[in-house]
Amino acid sequence: MLRAVRARVGGFPRHSGRALRARGARGIAARGQGQRRAGSVLNASGPIVQFENVGLRYGTGAETLSDLSFSLKQGGFYFLTGPSGAGKTSLLKLLYLALRPSRGLIRLFGEDIVTMPRGRLPGFRRRIGVVFQEFRLVPHLSAYDNVALPLRVSGVAEADLHHPVSEMLAWVGLADRASARPATLSGGEQQRVAIARAVIGRPELLVADEPTGNVDPDMAKRLLHLFDSLNKLGTTVVVATHDLHLLSRVQRAEMLRLDRGQLADPTGALRHPPQRPDA
Fold first, then answer.
1. N or C: which end of the chain has fewer CB within 10 A?
2. Is residue 136 within a helix (H) or strand (E), and if so which, with residue range?
3. What's 138's DSSP letter?
4. What region holds the ABC transporter domain (predicted)?
5. For the chain, where are the alpha helices, taking DSSP H only?
6. What confidence category does residue 272 fall into, taking pLDDT thresholds of 50, 70 and 90?
7. Is-contact 55 37, C-beta < 8 A?
């Protein structure tokens, strides 16, 4: 798990990539080694995601996504933008394996997931952290237990859960709401629980659908800082957002723009977001 240094600002840890690496949890490191031993064919320099002429159609209607060809490099940070109805959520669903394309090729972690047997998909999904726009918290579980869920599924011992889960709740400003169930949390609080749950296991790929849509601007900056720190540890991050103010907060980030189900740039090139003078 990600461990924070002692200094905190407004309930959120001030941290650096060096500190996080030095204090990273042994359990996550061991799990990462296990995944590599299990035979991941992705090398350090290869793309983590490849789309080739991908199309997605719901039912018999027109294609929601058409002719998408692009690649995302391992360890990259990407903003997915576009107007409402452009197909951002559908593209994210392809990334986190909730859907398969109607046509085309998708490689994830170096493997073709279009033809992959369904029995192998759960193992791939465990390597992906997802922040859903509608949260999808388990209603009968507390905030603490919702955040702990990915670790329990991965087999982390109960004795090893308390510190990382409590720390992560503190990161998102919910240390005092650990025992609260989703129905008693505000929309912004549920959003933060969902984010904590998505990042607690330090996934190889993090996919976030409008993760700052229900929080105030200050918390949005803090959450983006969390994504940035995770990215510096090697996680590939894809954030769908309408908030153009976020785009310059991660200077090395690139932008993928959708319009009516197609890449706004027909070549599929990724563009750097505009720089903010005061960033």
1. C
2. none
3. -
4. 49-279
5. 17-22, 26-37, 88-95, 121-125, 143-153, 162-171, 187-199, 217-232
6. low
7. no
Q: Which amino acid is at 52?
A: E
- Amino acid code (one letter) for 38: A
Contact between residue 43 and residue 204 where contact means Cβ atoms under 8 Å apart: no
Q: What is the pLDDT of residue 113?
A: 94
Contact 174, 223 (CB under 8 A): no
Contacts of 2 (CB under 8 A, 6+ apart): 15, 20, 24, 25, 164, 167, 168, 171, 199, 202, 229, 230, 233
CB distance 246 to 191 below 8 Å: no
Handedness of CA 232, 238, 241, 244 (dihedral sign): positive
Cα separations in angstroms, 190 against 11, 132, 182, 214, 227: 17, 11, 6, 9, 17
Domains of the chain, CATH where assigned: 8-43+74-99+117-263 (3.40.50.300)
Contact 3, 24 (CB under 8 A): yes
In the predicted model, what is the mean pLDDT of residues 35-58?
70
How deeply is 18 buried, as exposed, middle or buried, from its count of CB atoms within 10 A (0-12, 13-18, 19+)?
Answer: exposed
Mean pLDDT of the chain: 82
Average of pLDDT values for 92-109?
96
Nearest to 263 by CA among 102, 54, 95, 46: 54
Tell me the Cα Rg of the chain.
18
Q: Which of 34-38, 153-157, 162-166, 185-189 has the lowest mean pLDDT?
A: 34-38
- DSSP string spanning 46-108? SEEEEEEEEEEE-TTS-EEEEEEEEEEETT-EEEEE--TTSSHHHHHHHHTTSS--SEEEEEE
Give which of 271, 278, 218, 275 is closest to 81, Cα–Cα. 271
N-term to C-term CA, the chain: 29
